[in-house]
Design a protein that fits this description.
Among the domains are: 153 residues, no CATH class; 125 residues, no CATH class. The chain is built from 30 helices and eight strands. The protein is elongated. The strands form two sheets. Strands 3-4-5-7-6 form a five-stranded mixed beta barrel. It is mainly alpha-helical. Helices cover 61% and strands 6% of the residues. Helix 9 runs parallel beside helix 14 and helix 17 packs antiparallel against helix 26.
Length: 895
C-alpha cells in the first residue's frame, strides 16, 4: 500500500480538527457529569443510576459524545479517509459567505446560551429553577463550542499570525493598564465601602442609566446610518453632478450634527413633563407647571429683569436667568414657553459630543455617543418624579452647565487636533469658560486643567505664552462686563456673591462631624465678609483637628461621583428579566401580556419601578459592571494612543470637577451631572473599538474607522507663526458685547409700576363698589395703612398655588408661601419694587389668578412673608380677592 503524503496545510488542519474534537469531548464529559450530579427525586434508579427523565435529558450529550469519540478514533486510525475532508474544510474556510455566516451563527448561539445562563442565575422561581438548572450545562457547553468554532475557523482561514495587531499594540497596552487601575479601584471600593456607604453631607442618588437594550439599539442604528451614509456618499461622489463630487468631510459632519440635534429636539420635546421637586404637579387655580426652589430662583430673577428691576444684587446664575428672560420676552411668560427655547439650545449636547468623539476616534463612534446622549436625557425626563434627576425640561442650571463644559471640551479637542490653523480657538475656550462660569462659577476649577494641557502640548515658551494670552483675552472679555456691573451695583468686583456665600456656608456646615444646618447660620449683624471669614476659619479648624475624617469624606464623595458616572452605563440585562417573566407567567398563569412584561423589564420607568433606585443586582450586575469597566478602559486606551493631551483634558475635567463638589461634601445626583457624559463618551469609543478589534481578528486585516491620524506633540522648537491679532480683537469684542447685553438690559428696561399710585387704584376699585360688600371704607384703609406692619405692594404675582390645610411643599422651606400650614390658602411670589412671599387665606381656590398678573397687594408683614388682606388685579380691576375669614381690618392679632 502506497504511503499517503499529507501536505503541511492539511496536517495543520488535521491537528486543528483533532484538537477541536478532543476539547469538545472533554467539555461534553464535564457537561454530562454536571447533569448527573444535579439533585433529583429518584436518584439511583434506572440506567447508570439515572431516572428516565434525567436519562432523556442526558441522551443528547451521550449521542454527541459517541459521535465525537468515533470521529476522533477514526481520524487517528485512518487519516487518509480525511484527506478530502481536510481539503473541503480549507476550501469552505476560504469562502467569505460561509466563513462570516458561520461566525454570525456562532455569535447568535453564544448570546442565546449566555442569556440562558444569566436567566438561571437570577431566577427566583423554584418551579422554573428546576428546568433552568438542567439546561444550564447545555448552555455552557454551547458557549464553549461557539468560541472554539469561531477561533478554529479563524485559524483555518488565516493561521495564527497576529501581526495585524502590531499597530494597535500601544492602544491595547494603554487599555490593559487602564483596566487594571479601574478594576483595582473597584475592588478597593467593594472592600472598604468608601464611595458606596452614604455620608452625612449632600449624598445624591445615582442618576438615570442607559439600559443595555438601548445601547444595542443605538449601536445597530449608528452602524446602519454610518454604512448607508458611506454607500450613499460613494454613489454621490461617483455621480456626474459636480456639487455632489465635492462633498467634504465637514459637510458630512454638519449634516450628522443637524440630524442629532433634530432627533434630540423631537425626543425630548415629545417626552411629557412629569411632576418633580423642581416642577411640582399642576394645582389650582391655573393647573400649570411652575418652577420651584432653585428653579424658581433662576426664573423669577429673569422675570424681575423683564419688568425693569434687574437681576437682583446677589444673583447666582446671571447668564441662565438672562436666557430665561429673553426666552419669555419673545415667546410669552410661562414654563412651557421657556422650554421652547431651552430644549433646542440643550439639544446641541449630542451634536457637540459627536464632534468631540468624531475628532478623537471616528464618525461611527460619534454617532453612537450622540444617540446615547439623546437616550440618556430621554430617560432622565421619563424618570422625573420617581428618581432624583435633573433634565432638559427643568429650569435648572445643571444641563446648561453641561452644555458649556461640552462646548469648551469640543473647542479644546478640535484645537489640539490642528493648533496651527485654529489659532483663535484658545480665545474661544476662554470665552466659553467665562460664559459657563456665569451659569455655575464652580467651573473655574477647569482653568488649571486647560493650562496644564497647554503646557503638555508643547514646550515652546513663545507658543505657550501666546496661547495663554489668547485664553486670558477670551476669559477677561466675557467676565469684565459682569464684574463692572457688580462694581456699579455692589461697590466691589465680584462674580456671584450669593453663590460664593452659599458655597462657603456649605463648607462651614459640612466640615463638621454632624453637618447640622444651624452651623452655617449667620450671626446677628454679621456682614458677608465676616460670615465668610468665620466659615473658613471653622472649616480650617476642623481640618486641623480631624484630618483623617476630612480625607475620608472627600474621598468618599469623589468616588461616589465616579460611581455615578459609571452608573450611566448598563448595569443589568433587561432581556433576561423579560424572558424570565414570560416563562414564569406562562407556567403559573394565563397567557402573558407581552407589553406589560416589556414595560416592567425593558422600559426605563419599569426598570426603576421594579428595582427602586439603581443598585448592583447580583451576578448579572457584576458581569455588566466588569464589561462597562472593560469598555471604558478600551476607550481610554484608544484616546490615549490617538491624542494624549485631549485624553488628559477630558479625564482631568471629570476628575477635577468631581473633586470640587467633593470638597464641599456633595456628590452624585445633579451635582456631578455636568461631567457625567465623559463616562459614556469613552464607553462609546471603547465599544466601537472592541468591535473593530474583533473584525480585525477574524478578517486578519486592520479594520479602522479613524479619519484622524495619531496626533504627535508639537516640536518644541517650532515657530508659532503669525499671531491672530485681528481675530483676537473681534473675538474679544464680541464676547464683551454679548455679556454686556445683560447689564445693558438691566439699565435699559423701563421700570414697570413706576407710575402706578396705590390710592388711585384703591379709589378706582371703590368707585366700582367692590369694597363696600367687604365692609371696607376710606377710613378703614387709611387706618390700616398707618399701621407699622401694614404693607401696600405693587408688582407681578408669580407661581400662584392653592393649598388645603395641612398641605404644602414641606414643613420647612425657604419659600414661606409653600410651607405646610393649618389653614386653606393661596401662595404666590411677588416681584417688583419689593419682592415678597405672599399668603392669602381663602376657603376655596380663586377662579381667577393668572400667572404673572400685575397686582396690588395689601397685607400685614409676618417676617418672611406677607399675610395678604386684599389683592387687586391692575389689568382686571373688576376682580379682587379678599382674605377670608376677615374679622377685622387690622394687623393687630391678625394670626
Amino acid at each position: 500500500m502506497s504511503r499517503i503524503v499529507i501536505q503541511p496545510q492539511a496536517s495543520r488542519t488535521i491537528r486543528l480538527l483533532g484538537g477541536y474534537i478532543v476539547l469538545a469531548l472533554l467539555e461534553g464529559l464535564a457537561t454530562f457529569i454536571q447533569l448527573v450530579r444535579l439533585p433529583g427525586k429518584s436518584a439511583g434508579q434506572g440506567f447508570l443510576g439515572l431516572s428516565p427523565l434525567r436519562l432523556a435529558i442526558a441522551t443528547p450529550i451521550l449521542v454527541l459524545l459517541v459521535v465525537f469519540s468515533w470521529i476522533l478514533i477514526a481520524l487517528w486510525r485512518r487519516p487518509s479517509l480525511y484527506e478530502k475532508l481536510v481539503d473541503r474544510l480549507n476550501e469552505l474556510a476560504r469562502q467569505g459567505q460561509i466563513y462570516w455566516g458561520t461566525l454570525v451563527l456562532c455569535g447568535t448561539v453564544f448570546a442565546i446560551c449566555f442569556n440562558l445562563i444569566l436567566l438561571n442565575w437570577i431566577n427566583t422561581d423554584l418551579y422554573l429553577k428546576a428546568y433552568l438548572d438542567r439546561s444550564a450545562p447545555y448552555a455552557l457547553w454551547g458557549m464553549l463550542l461557539c468560541v472554539q468554532t469561531a477561533v478554529t475557523l479563524r485559524l483555518l482561514r488565516h493561521g495564527a499570525d497576529l501581526q495585524v495587531f502590531k499597530v494597535e499594540r500601544k492602544a491595547m497596552t494603554a487599555a490593559v493598564l487602564a483596566l487594571i487601575v479601574l478594576l483595582s479601584l473597584a475592588m478597593w471600593i467593594g472592600w472598604t465601602r468608601i464611595g458606596l456607604a452614604p455620608d452625612v453631607g449632600q449624598w445624591g442618588e445615582y442618576g438615570s442609566p442607559i439600559l443595555s437594550i438601548q445601547v444595542m439599539l443605538a449601536l445597530a442604528v449608528s452602524t446602519a446610518v454610518w454604512w448607508l451614509g458611506r454607500r450613499g456618499l460613494t454613489v454621490l461622489r461617483n455621480s456626474r453632478r459636480l456639487r455632489f463630487s465635492r462633498l467634504s468631510g465637514r459637510s458630512i459632519d454638519i449634516l450628522v450634527c443637524l440630524l442629532l440635534w433634530g432627533m434630540a429636539v423631537w425626543r425630548w420635546g415629545a417626552e411629557p413633563l412629569r411632576p418633580s421637586y423642581f416642577s411640582p404637579a399642576p394645582a389650582p387655580p391655573n393647573y400649570e407647571y411652575y418652577p420651584f426652589s432653585d428653579a424658581a430662583n433662576y426664573d423669577y430673577a429673569g422675570q424681575s429683569l423683564l419688568i425693569g428691576y434687574g437681576l437682583e444684587n446677589e444673583l447666582v446664575r446671571p447668564l441662565y436667568s438672562f436666557f430665561l428672560a429673553v426666552a419669555q420676552a419673545f415667546s410669552g411668560i410661562g414654563y412651557q414657553n421657556a422650554l421652547k427655547w431651552q430644549i433646542p439650545l440643550l439639544a446641541l449636547i449630542p451634536a457637540l459630543l459627536y464632534l468631540i468623539t468624531r475628532t478623537l476616534h471616528s464618525r461611527l463612534a460619534g454617532i453612537l455617543v450622540g444617540l446615547l446622549a439623546v437616550i440618556h436625557e430621554t430617560n432622565s425626563i421619563a424618570l422625573a418624579g420617581i428618581a432624583a434627576v435633573s433634565h432638559a425640561k427643568l429650569l435648572m442650571s445643571d444641563l446648561p452647565t453641561m452644555l458649556g463644559i461640552i462646548a469648551l471640551s469640543a473647542i479644546i479637542v478640535l484645537w489640539l487636533k490642528d493648533p496651527n490653523s485654529r489659532k483663535i480657538f484658545p480665545l474661544l475656550a476662554g470665552g466659553v469658560l467665562a460664559l459657563t462660569m456665569l451659569i455655575r462659577i464652580q467651573v473655574v476649577i477647569l482653568l488649571p486643567v486647560i493650562l496644564f494641557v497647554l503646557a503638555a502640548r508643547s514646550r515652546n515658551p513663545r507658543w505657550l505664552f501666546l496661547n495663554t494670552l489668547l485664553l486670558s483675552v477670551g476669559l477677561l472679555s466675557a467676565i469684565t462686563p459682569w464684574l463692572g456691573r457688580n462694581w456699579l451695583v455692589r461697590g466691589r468686583f465680584s462674580l456671584s456673591e450669593a453663590a460664593q456665600t452659599s458655597q462657603i456656608g456649605l463648607i462651614g456646615q459640612f466640615y463638621s462631624l454632624t453637618a447640622e444646618e444651624e452651623l452655617r447660620a449667620r450671626l446677628p449683624g454679621e456682614t458677608d465678609e465676616q460670615y465668610a471669614s468665620r466659615m473658613v476659619d471653622n472649616a480650617l479648624q476642623f481640618v486641623r483637628e480631624h484630618p483623617k475624617e476630612t480625607v475620608r469624606f472627600i474621598t468618599a464623595h469623589f468616588l461616589n461621583n465616579e460611581i455615578t458616572t459609571l452608573s450611566v452605563m448598563p448595569s443589568s440585562f433587561p432581556l433576561v428579566d423579560f424572558f424570565r417573566r414570560i416563562a414564569v407567567g406562562a407556567i403559573s398563569g394565563p397567557r402573558p401580556d407581552l407589553s406589560v412584561y416589556w414595560r416592567r423589564c425593558c422600559s426605563i420607568r419599569g426598570y426603576f419601578n421594579s428595582r427602586g433606585v439603581w443598585k448592583p443586582q447580583g451576578s448579572q450586575s457584576t458581569l455588566s459592571i466588569f464589561f462597562a469597566l472593560l469598555v471604558v478602559a478600551v476607550g481610554i486606551g484608544t484616546v490615549w494612543r490617538r491624542d494624549r493631551t485631549a485624553g488628559i483634558f477630558l479625564l482631568g475635567a471629570n476628575i477635577v470637577y468631581s473633586l470640587s463638589t467633593a470638597l464641599v461634601r456633595s456628590s452624585g445626583w445633579r451635582f456631578n451631572l455636568p461631567v457625567e457624559w465623559v463616562g459614556y463618551m469613552f464607553y462609546s469609543i471603547g465599544l466601537i473599538q472592541i468591535c473593530l478589534w474583533g473584525i480585525t481578528f477574524f478578517k486578519n486585516k486592520l479594520a479602522s474607522l479613524a479619519e484622524n491620524r495619531v496626533i504627535a506633540p508639537l516640536d518644541s522648537g517650532s515657530d508659532y507663526g503669525w499671531f491672530p491679532a485681528r481675530g483676537a480683537v473681534l473675538g474679544g469684542l464680541s464676547l464683551f458685547l454679548f455679556v454686556a447685553a445683560i447689564p445693558i438690559a438691566e439699565f435699559a428696561m423701563p421700570k414697570r409700576f413706576r407710575d402706578v399710585n396705590v390710592q388711585a387704584v384703591l379709589s378706582n376699585v371703590d368707585e366700582k363698589g367692590l369694597l363696600k360688600p367687604l365692609g371696607i371704607t376710606d377710613q378703614t384703609l387709611e387706618a390700616f395703612l398707618a399701621e407699622d406692619q401694614a404693607e401696600a405692594l405693587i408688582g407681578r404675582g408669580l407661581y400662584p398655588r392653592y393649598y388645603l390645610a395641612g398641605q404644602g411643599m414641606a414643613p420647612v422651606t425657604r419659600w414661606p408661601s409653600s410651607v405646610v400650614r393649618d389653614y386653606n390658602r393661596l401662595g404666590f411670589y411677588l416681584i417688583g419694587p419689593k419682592q415678597r412671599q405672599v399668603v392669602l387665606r381663602t376657603p376655596a381656590s380663586p377662579s381667577y389668578f393668572p400667572h404673572a398678573s400685575d397686582i396690588l397687594v395689601l397685607g400685614c408683614s409676618e417676617g418672611d412673608y406677607l399675610d395678604a388682606y386684599l389683592i387687586v388685579f391692575l389689568k382686571s380691576p373688576d376682580i379682587i380677592l379678599a382674605r377670608s375669614p376677615l374679622d377685622q381690618w387690622t394687623c393687630t392679632g391678625s394670626k
